[in-house]
Amino acid sequence: MSSYLRLVRWPNLLMMGLIFLLVKTQLVDPISALAGVESCLTTLHWVLMALATVLIAASGNVVNDIFDQSIDFQNRPQTVVVGNVIPEATAWNLYYALGSIGLAIGMFLCWQLGNISNSLIFMLCAGGLYFYSYSYKRQFLIGNLVVAFLAAVMLALPLYMEMMCAPGEWMQLPWAPMLVALGFFSFLTTLIREMIKDMEDLKGDQFAGSSTIPITIGIRNSKILVLLLLGVLIGAIGSLQLAWLSEKDWLMTSYFFIATQIPAVIVGYQVIRSQKPADFHFASTVTKVLMLGGILSLVVFRFTLQ
Questions:
Q1: What is the rounded CA–CA span in Å between residue 93 and residue 1?
Q2: Residue 141 has pLDDT above 80, yes or no
């Protein structure tokens, strides 16, 4: 069982479930209550949306490991699951099962909400993850952008579903800008982490004939690019902090400084000094902490509505 949990990357899936929980309980519910607008998404709808997204993401993780067997044997032979612990045929069956169930739940949700055409979103996400693993991740920048875009889509999905029910009402609520900001944060941090992972996996990617960013422009220039993106992230958060300071919102200002800007600086420092795959792996792990800090900001945001 532990091998299957590793294969689907259960900590990442748990974080995705946490995002849906926090968006509903800390953002949508309190603001819609204050505005007197009733959500058309029931608790069951939210559970179905989260479950469909998590299952599709899990299938994407499985197919990624299937296509990356040769690369992973070069980079991390001791942690390879597919072809080592779990047979490839079994992994393919798991991929089809998770993806099919996730798509079925997504289609049922859209049918329940009266717009079956929205199920195309779930299909595009499943297809994007498959082609990312099959081809995009070995190409220059494209794979990084695809994963970052899908991460942002996951945060925008609840907003979109609500808008489809009552666009006139939900477009006026103040939680939409917050969700857009979180989508941008998710896109940028995911892009940064994907680039760091490419530097970590340089050896295996070279073996597979990939054209990732580090292979194409070199490690030094890749580090510069990551640092520039971190600078954009820190600057964007800083602009928000200035707005909060003008309103004397010390809670949000302090939280983002501690939970996002400090980890971002640590990531930058670690990227600068990284030489070995283990160094880049640590930088990638700290980036996860940075991402979690952004997600948990929803809890802090909830207190500003009191």
A1: 16
A2: yes
Cβ(63)–Cβ(130) below 8 Å: yes
- Tokens encoding 266: 């640590």
Reported as a pLDDT band with limits 50, 70 and 90, residue 172 is low
The whole-angstrom separation of Cα 157 and Cα 20 is 10
Q: Per-residue pLDDT tens for 64-101?
A: 888 888 777 777 777 778 878 888 899 999 999 999 99
| C-alpha to C-alpha distance for 96 and 185, rounded to whole angstroms | 31
String of b and e for 102-115 (b: at least 16 CB within 10 Å)? Answer: bbebbbebbeebee
CA distance 204 to 68: 9
The answer to whether 26 and 302 are in contact (CB under 8 A) is: yes
Show the CA angle centred on residue 284, arms to residues 282 and 286, nearest 5°: 70
Q: Is the pLDDT of residue 270 over 70?
A: yes
